[in-house]
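Re: weekly structure request thread

Next one in the queue (1527 aa):
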Amino acid sequence: MRKNEVIYGCEEGTNAVMADQGEKKSQEEDLSPDIKDWSKHQVREWALKVNGVDEGVAEILFLQDINGPSLLILETTDLPAMGVTFGPAKLIIHARDELVKLKKEEPTSFRNQPGRPCKPYPFYRYHDTYRYMESSILDITESGASDFIEPCHEYKGFTNTTDETKMSKFTDEVIRFAAACMNSRTNGTIHFGIGDKPEFTHGQVLGVAVEDKEAYANELKSAIDGCFQYKHKQAAQMCIKPPRFVGVLNKNMTSSDKYVIEVDIVPESVICEENIYQTSNVDTKKAKKKAKGREADKTETKPSKQFYVRDGGSSRNLLATTTFAKPMEEYNQFVDSVAQRSQLRKQAEEKHLSVIKSSNQGSRLSQMITGGSLSLDKSHFECYVIVTNKSHSIQLESLGFLVELNPTAVLDFDPESAECGLQKHFEQQSTVSVHLPAQYKITEGVEDIANKLKLTRNTSWVFCNGGIKDEAPSDIDEWLMDKGASIRDVISFLCRKDVLPNKRFLVIFLLLSTVSEKMDPLVETFSTFSQELRGTEQILCICDNENAFTSWKDLIKARCGNDISGRCIYELNFAEVNGTVLSLLSKNRRSSRFLPCGGGSQVLLEKKVERSLSTLEILCMNQCEGGNEDKIAIEENFYKGGKVSWWNFYFSEQPGSTPFIKRDKFDFIMNTVIPDLCSLRKACVLFNLMHVPGCGGTTLAMHMLWALRDRYRCAVLRDSNADFAEVAEQVVKLLMYDHEEQLPRVPLLLMIDDFDDMEKVSDLQQLIEKECVKKDIQSKSAQVILLNCMRSESSELTESTEDTVFIGNKLSEMEQKQFEQKLVEIEKTHKNAETFYGFMIMKKNFKQEYIQGVVRNTLKSFNKNQKHAQLLAVLVLLNVYCKSASLSVSLCEEFLGLQPKPFCGTIKVEEGFGKFSTLIASSSVESKVVHKAVTMIHSSIARQCLQELTTTHTMSKAEITDLLLTTDKLYESTQGKDKLLRDVHHILVKRYYSAEEESQFSPLIQDIASETPGQEEMILLSASKRFDKDAVVSQLLARYYYLKKKDFSEAKDWARSARDLSKDSSYMADTSAQVIKHELKNAIANCKEEPITADKLNMFLKVAQSAIDAFKETQSLAKKESMQRLQSKMDNCPFNTSGCLGEIQVGVLLIEVLGKTPVFSSENVRHDIMSRVLSGDIKLQDAERHDPRNTKHRTYYIMLRQFEDVLYNLKYRMKMNFDFLDNFYVNLGSRSGMKDSREQVAQNELFRCFRQYVNLFCKTDSASLLKNKTLCNMLQLLEARQFLEKQKADTYCGILNCLSIDTSAEKLEKIVRMYDFVGASKTVKEKINYIYVNVVLSRIKLESTRIQPFQKLIGLLLQVQREQIPLSENLSLLFIAVVLLWPQENGPPCRGLGKYISQMRTSYYTEMKEVYNGKRPIVHFFLGKKRGYERLVHLGEIKRCCMAEEGQFISMWENGKLWKEKKVEELLCRVTGKVKGKFILADTCIPDLKVEVTPMFRWQLSGYGEGSKVSFLIGFSMRGPLALDIN
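Done, posted below.
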């Protein structure tokens, strides 16, 4: 057997010898309809199909030369004489008699009727409306492989079958044909119900009566499982498509009960690769089983193999026994050619994909159906005449445009139209007058006839092929003689200049069924219309697929000599035709909304669908068209500073208006950024538009959506607090709307605004990607583009990155010119342009002097005792500290007493603000309740107002905040109350973080404390009353009292209150612990005594123990929280590490306290004693016994012994927490897989604490006192290990981190020396660490002499693997084993690699499950192209390759552009593999070794089917090897 050959065992008798190839072919084709024509081979084949007859019986008939004629005269008694037992003999005679009876009942007149040519059903499609006509002839012959993509065909009449045999006949033929196509690598379709010679014309449509369609699908699936070898069952199931049942129409176009059953075979290269497929026969397997049951002779069924290939129009078995001298030669040659054949197939697939082109037929349809006006309201055509044929029920919902066209006449050739077709559907929506063609014959005055027909009042529905008033339909061949003349009369009548306006009506041929015969009535009808109209300028043809178009075009060319390609629409489906035509009516553009579908086509967005997408504001192609909004009011609100609306863009495009101001970054984003994002092979891509508040960032984002609404499906997220899972579901629903089978889809551009945290943006992006995977959306290009419009606190211009553009508050000269031009237009149309402060601030280029002048003049009359002044102050404060804040109109009306009375009309809320109304703007707010609201016109105006109020009008921030918190009337309004509470909570609680520091309180609280010290306490107490059930506000007060007031008793009360409100929150538990820690810290700081007294020591130790216990509880709750989040799979909040850090901090404070006691004075020996006591190495009793001042220190020892548990475990607990946090920070990163910059503050504090730790535990000051050589050696060993601990080189995490913190080569070489010094006394952990150090040093200084040779290190690794490995060291050992033992040419063999990876995943989940929620494992190494150590590429090397700034690098990592950098491609090794479920089986240099690799991002497998061949890069993480950049 050849290497890599795929063998499928089969069982079939092998005694038959084929006389020649012609006879062989006859066995594989249908049996002749006449039994008397059967050969002995065909008799044997028939006998094998008879249920209950063994293969041996069929063989006896064959050996006795029983052919068709002898079978017909065979008697029951003849068979036992041949050796056939009585039971099978009766079955054979019964089956023959049934078959003869069936033949007699079959109408012979049906068999040889000539038909007309037709096209086969479109390949690999299921939802087309195509149907066959009885006796038509498929215009393609049975064929073999051509170009691999064009399907070959095989026909089966399926007439000589009984109910008992038809299913086995069906499955046998499909398996044979499918295996032949798969081996030959060609697409193919096998048709059942298509006749062949001699009984029928080759390709004649017969049809098959089908009672149970599902039975065919189920039987075929079972047959595939039974006939293909186990390891290729899945491939066969994927290549052999489910049966398709194509309806067969009678010749008169009425429906029949017959179908043609078709099975498509698609042997894609990624599935078949270089395999060969041999099959077995299900029936022979059953026969063998029965034979064994009867203990029959073992030679009765002899196993053999079948290997089918396509040979012309048939499938041939290359393993069949022949008389050739070298029977296997042809088979061997074919197997040798499979690799080349597979490559050719792959090339053919790629070539086929590359010819997909963009379409402009939507635009062409708009042009042709309106005569160039692009509007049906102003169409060149006054009337429309529709000519149509057989419809399908699924088309009807997409033909609504016909009602809107209000056709003068419809010439309908479907005789069932009134019963279940287009006429019935149309009549439900419009009035029609039903006519027969004879009613159009001119027997009186033309106007009188038109009046009787109601031709200009109702649509005249002309049944052109019967179906009403007992008018019988005609066959295609008879139609011209029966009805052709009357239809010519109809056409002549309609084309008269005194009936329809000359040159002002359009004839639309709506081909709902494919026209495939030259005698089809529609061909004759087209010819007559073209003659009457003297050309085709008034004719438009619409069909929904290219095959239908090609057939129609060729028939018209042959009949009329005209090429009608330019008058045909065929690249749009009927839903797109419907949407495009409907969009051309202004009333529809007002009442209906349309989405783009590509090529200028559109689909109607149903109101019900739009309303179901409640989280999205959808921007349609025809947004605002036909509306009558108040232009002046809308523009005034925008120019004053209100949020831009779609109307502003619409108005700027109207005649007489100057274009909307285009910001400098607009073209760059439109022409560079968006196309680049679209090219990324990622389901959901992110683009950040960072902007200074008030500089027009949101306006720019909406301007981009407006400009792209024809090319993208555009939407805006209504509420940033919406349920993101629901948002993701609705986003994908909008993306897929009327797009299910169309590729490529029009991408969706989703704008999100007012997000204050990039983590929330990532959450949404991740959920959209998951939804795309769930819906199996292929993402070979971006499907959803998230346009994140986010405010930046910094006004400094930052450099744009791959996915981020910054908009600052400085206009360029070009932008200033546009603002000046716009001002000229504004002053012409608006009288109060001087109050358009929002516009003027930008026009003045954000000049502070202008802003100050406006605010000072407007607030001159401000009186804080007046209600409208108080409301303005509250609105100002909210807008300064919460950028998206607003006050609902109903709240303002109620507060200001503006409730309108029924007889007084309405009062605008702006008027209630009096002279301050120029500073506010109205808007619509999407919250739990959508409501109208007011907000400040500009962020800079709000800031200046607040400054003016605090300085000129002596209204402090504390006073305004108190007014906001204590005025109950503000919270009585139902509308907007929830939003107001959220905004108030935000300004009180929300802190800001940076990599350098963490703010203690919100900016508002800090500003109040700075401006009016002490007032912040009153504000926080008021807040606790307003939010009396809010744990976070209680937590805020606790933090205030322990951080600012140092009132720890009050702080504990508030912390207790927070915990009562949120018992299971680790964050509230942490606050309680922090209170105690700060109490200890404060007490130590205030203790001026040194040494400290025993009583003080006792107090400090008690507080410390309480703090440690509290932090332990925090840790426990944090782990519990993390597990709950993990199980919910919806909360990406990361693990709360504050409990671990807090316990370390308490440990550092304890060290400080103990260092001030006489027992552990600063002298060298006593320092070492403290280190050993806290390490648990010596007991306090021993220390006391050897203390020369033990009597004096006795009180201290008594105190210390009360806290032995805390003291003896201090080093252990601190070290455990250091290692835990190192493991967390080193191995887990952000959700993009990079280091998380937000954790830098905590890591800085961790580093400070570690310095204190090493000062005590990582040095031995009494070394000089030791004289004993043995003790001295032991001390040196201790010092070596202390050095390793000090450098964090005693853990694998610390060693790996050396690559990230740029540890010097010299320091690493010293670490290696220390490990070498430890020598033979190394523990298993130290041996593993030694391997890590060598690997890390090699990536920093490959030429170092301290590095072990690679093969020697491998030997050490293998040696360590043979030792007893502690559970705690499993993960670290497995990781480095997988990294070093990954197969390489001439490298060490590693058959256990798959087992190591499996164990590593298990260890990872066991060790990290409590902390990895919301995180991704960090990739420590990538697989490179070189050998040995150099094969391991660290992220730092990749960074040096692309020379990008940190922000730019992260952007390139996230969007995948990093892997396309030439230097990176040269550095990293691309690996191939096959998709297997959620994993990839990676190929290695060892042929039969495949390794399971996890995709870094699950969405990367979207669009790749099971078994697809892919290439990718490999990264090594603690979760196992990861696949990146999957292609």
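The chain has 62 helices and 41 strands. The two ends are 33 Å apart (CA to CA).
Next request, please.
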